[in-house]
Amino acid sequence: MPIPAIAHRATPTGLRRLFLGLICGAMLSASSSSAQTTENGFAFDVRISLSAKAAAKLAALSEGIIVSASYSGTPTPSAAKHADEIGQIDLGREEIEMQGHAGTVHVTGAKVNQKHLPWIEGPVLLNINVYSARHSGQDNILACDFFDGELRNAARQPVSLHCSLIAEHIDTRHKQ
Questions:
Q1: How many other C-beta atoms lie within 10 A of the C-beta of residue 58?
Q2: Residues 45, 58: Cα–Cα separation, whole Å
Q3: Distance of alpha carbon 128 from its chain centroid, rounded?
Q4: 158: number of Cβ within 10 Å
Q5: What is the tens place of the pLDDT at every residue in 83-134?
Q6: Which residues form the signal peptide (predicted)?
Q7: Domain ranges (residues) in the chain
Q8: Strand, helix or coil for residue 134
């Protein structure tokens, strides 16, 4: 294996430049890795599928789809006073609008209020709902599966949720 050209011309200036380059590269790698870890702590993907009738109606109306993710947790005894009306600590909500066809949405978790994490015990809980964006009318037209469970389960692999038109009367499923 040939020796790289840089090894043949190892001068003090060249070595300093190489060393500085390696240090800068390591710092950039560490900072992007840190940002990725933070984002991935609350991030997940949702894969939306549509019935043929729902796909046709959304296309005809040029209607969008909203994926709504609500994060929460069980309060510690000392944080019970901060619980919401259903007894949970609200950690935030993120809504993503996508075009009105099947596809995958990435939810970043950027809206999670991390200052409230010490108020919860146990895992971060996640509720995912999907509905029409209501650009073409004031009523939701979709009946979609939903996710209600632990965030870590949603983060393992994309959460698959199927949507049909409410008028189709197809049962929705609870995923966890």
A1: 24
A2: 22
A3: 10
A4: 15
A5: 999 999 999 999 999 999 999 999 999 999 999 999 999 999 999 999 999 9
A6: 1-35
A7: 5-38, 42-175
A8: coil
Considering the entire predicted model, what is its pTM? 0.76
Q: Bridge-partner residues for 174, per DSSP?
A: 146
Distance CA 101, CA 46 (A): 13
Residue 174 CA from chain centroid, whole number:
18
CB 144 within 8 A of CB 47: no
Count of residues making up the chain: 176
Give per-residue pLDDT as tens, 33-56.
Answer: 333 334 548 999 999 999 999 999
Residue matched to tokens 């870890």: 37
Using DSSP, state whether 44 is helix, strand or coil.
strand
- 8 Å CB contact between 109 and 43: yes
Q: What is the CATH number of domain 42-175?
A: 2.60.40
